[in-house]
Amino acid sequence: MTDPVLTITDANLSLDGNAGRVDILHDISLTVRQGETLGLVGPSGSGKSSLLMLMGGLEQATSGRIMALGQDLTAMNEDQLARFRRDHMGVVFQSFHLIPTMTALENVATPLELAGVRDAFARAEAELRAVGLGDRINHYPSQMSGGEQQRVALARASAPRPRILLADEPTGNLDATNGAAIIDLLFDLRDRHGATLIMVTHASELAARCDRVVHLCDGRIDTLAKAAE
Amino acid sequence: MTLRIASRFALRELRGGLRGFRVFLACLALGVAAIAAVGTVRAGIEAGLTRDGAALLGGDAEVEFTYRFARDEELAFLNSIADRISETVDFRSMAVVDRDGTTERGLTQIRAVDDTYPLVGAVQLDPVMPLADALADQGGVMERVLADRLGLVPGDSFRLGEATFTLRAILERYPDNASAGFGLGPRTIVLTDALAGSGLIVEGTLFSTQYRLDLPEGADLAALEQQAEDQFRDAGLRWRDSRRGAGGAEQFVDRIGAFLILVGLSGLAVGGVGVSAAVRAYLAGKTSVIATLKTLGATRSTIFLTYFIQIGVLTLAGVTLGLILGAGLPVLLAPLIEARLPVPAVFTIYTAPLAEAAVYGVLAALIFTLWPLAKTEDIRAATLFRDAFAASRALPRATYLVVIAGLVALLVGAAVWFSGTVFLTLWTAGGITGSLLILILAAALIRWVARKSRLAARGNTALRMALGSIGARGGESTSVVLSLGLGLTVLAAVGQIDGNLRTAFADDLPAVAPSYFFVDIQPDQIAGFRDRLDQDEAVSRYDTAPMLRGIITQINGRPATEVAEGHWVVRGDRGVTYADAQPAGTEITAGAWWPAGYDGPPQISFAAEEAAEIGLQLGDTMTVNILGRDITGEVTSFRNVSWEDAGIGFVLAMNQSALQGAPHSWISTVYATPEAEAAILRDLATAYPNITAIRVRDAIDQVIALVGGLSAATRYGALITLVTGFLVLIGAAAAGERTRTYEAAVLKTLGASRRSILASFALRSALLGLAAGVVALGAGILGGWAVATFIMDTGYTVIWGNALLIIGGGIMASLLAGLAFALRPLAAKPARVLRARE
């Protein structure tokens, strides 16, 4: 059995909003191992994306502990978390979140530049070619289709060779054809770089391709669904 | 490393263009341009005054004495340092014309000259002729305004005192005319020798003598000034030279320039509100980019620097644009400005005022952008997933607050340094900061009231929607109230101060002021003068007092200027009087008046308020130099002296025996109804041709005209503030256009007519304008009251005409800006808008 890259122990998440305090995640404990592909599934509002955010240090747990690559994410401040993501994690969003004022090449080069990589642009270009966008490197997001934008986002997430890839419904905004192509690309990248892939999805066929699937319901891990599976 | 990456990111972000930054650039450029333009005009005038210093002065240097001619030792000194000397005598008198049995009189400022006048420059006459020819054989020249008033043309005769002159020409221009802007009488020039039999220049009359010096090439003016002052300062010698040839005019230009720049700073503060709003709106649109960068590993400092550099580049662009406008416009409009200025000016590019404007612009931009920039730290990466919980802190981190406070202190410090006036700058800075705070609180209050009133407005859809929009978080209410409010506050304060000054001078003062001031009444004339007034039934009251002029040189044996730290009573010569018994109506506040018939060591009664200001105590000694003779007395009493009613008031009075022997004249105030004034003047001036009458109403009119000019200049400065405020309004309205378009589309879908939607838009603009106007009026009235009470020491009444204008102006400005950006939302097709939003 491979080593754990991510261990979550008794994590809870509550957020204060204008309408009052909302409890989102309850007593989550979970271990993800090196090279594993984990699918997070569940109905809307079950806490999938929130759990992914906890794993990426994008959200701070109200209580509990989250260890990633041997480091305690709950003990880090915002800048330390940003640096940790820069060095070890890649994130893919449902809405792509490319920076509109940057070309495809610049978008992909951004995390490399932040990490101080010397040949950031050469590597970014190679990464874009690897996702089939060699002829679109100087295009801006507004000049590309949704599928192309998500490919750029994939290239951006994988360019720094992260050990953990987080994907939040990466095909949610795409049609079936583009969605399938993106998933192939995502698994291909995982295989080539040996990263651990954690993915939130609604699609059952996509969940079926994962090594393991965790079901969430009302902010808790649904052990019955897991057992039934 | 961080800086390099941030610079790269910033440049990429700037590719998005200047959309959303037009108001930012316009506000900053306008504020900087106004300050740079005022500074450039001021520098141009100062350069003109310096260039023409010698001509304005009438020589390389001038030595002046009050009340007397130079003594032998003084003349010897002047002869030792100058190649040539010209002596002039300056005093006020009445020019009198007898024609067809009637007599016309006009107050005139006489310059009696010698045959070397003018040493520098030339006198221009109409018809053209040499001055020497015009003045020969009891000839004289006078300014056109006086000649016209007296109905004189060249060849006619007029009298000065008891001497008769022939008007030879009209005085068009003369060189030593720097202070021509303010004087009670138009100028007449005659030869001093020709006044010998006039009875005008005798010991005790009010006159001053000037000795203009033509100095050798390369003379060290500073050293000569020092030498002259060391030898003759206490004898009443006053030195001026071509370095500051225009004297008071230069100081006046300097002061008014500094004041207008401070008014310009309020424009920059209004612009700052627009700048801040533009940055906030820009950063709001960048939330997802910032969150994405954070997800990709960017630290808070990288994010902050990325946007700080962008705003920095735009700030430099705005400041540069402002400097180009501020420096270029005065140069382009130089012929127009020069034609309207009473003093010479040299318009070119001056670096000092531009540097001053740039410093103000950069500091203001930093102060107003740092807050929204600091808030980028609060944008969390999780914002990409959910907005609902993206609540952030109300204030930026303490470090930023300290830096902002430091920058404000730096700006105020820079303003103090540049303007050279601590008092005025602190008042202005306090006024701007106080107004901003009041307006911020008022904006919050207005939003709260709007939210609470929505319930009451149920049933009136347009009003409910308007109130809802005013009370909404992140709406345009705060920007509108701040920008429009601050602009209107400045205008309201100027209007209230100006109105109160006008009331004080035009209405209140004439009611209590005398009709005439008579000066130069000789001691042997005073008894007869009083008799005439006693017998004149039209005279309701008159006061007389002996008057000498003296310089307070020492207090308790130390130089008075040191002890009193430059207080006005020790600057230059002052009127001094004497009395035996305590005059009726004198109110002693401390000590006791000397006994009647007292002839012991000199005693002094000093004005109580001024004594307190310079720290004078009973028992202190004071030395006064009168006509070159030092008289030291002991301060034995303080008394109230009222300056407000334009009556006779002397800071310093001595016992009779101390001053009686010195040459002096008397002055008198005469109170009568306006209808009786002409007859009184005729009677007294005929009986005593040497005395000079000053009609108080004329003096008041002069002051009103001067105040009017200052108010107009200030109002122009304040107008820039309002224009900037209007720009901010337009920016806020433009920023809200998308929201309004969506709102209109939804309302149309629900069945609202365009008329009711327009009514709602108009109502919200009008309500906000009204609120801004009312708050501004409150702040303006507070400012006007503070200035009237603490600075001018006068009463205060609200000027309601101006107040209504301010409120009306606020509503109109807000309506105009709001409705200009309501047309597109009204015209938009709902389906297209709603589909685009999905």
Description:
The complex is a heterodimer of chains A (229) and B (838). In chain A, helix 3 crosses helix 4 (120-130), helix 3 (104-114) runs parallel beside helix 5 (146-158) and helix 5 (146-158) runs parallel beside helix 6 (176-193). Chain A is built from 8 helices and 10 strands. The mean pLDDT of chain A is 87. In chain A, the strands form 2 sheets. Chain A has a 6-stranded mixed beta sheet. In chain A, strands 2-1-4-5 form a 4-stranded antiparallel beta sheet, covered by helices on one side. The two termini of chain A are 21 Å apart. With 229 residues, chain A is of the alpha/beta class. Chain A has a single domain (4-228), classed as Rossmann fold, CATH 3.40.50. Chain B has 838 residues and is of the alpha+beta class. Chain B has 4 domains: 1-55 and 251-420, no CATH class; 90-202, no CATH class; 432-513 and 697-838, no CATH class; 539-672, no CATH class. In chain B, 54% of the residues lie in helices and 17% in strands. Chain B has 27 helices and 21 strands. A 6-stranded mixed beta barrel of chain B has the order 2-3-8-5-7-6. A 6-stranded mixed barrel of chain B has the order 12-14-19-16-18-17. Chain B is elongated, with a radius of gyration of 34 Å. The two termini of chain B are 41 Å apart. The relative contact order of chain B is 0.12.
Low-confidence stretches of chain A: none
Question: What's the arrangement of strands in the largest beta sheet of chain B?
Answer: 2-3-8-5-7-6
Give the CATH topology of chain A: Rossmann fold
Please summarize the sheet with the most strands of chain B.
6 strands, mixed, barrel
Radius of gyration of chain B: 34 Å
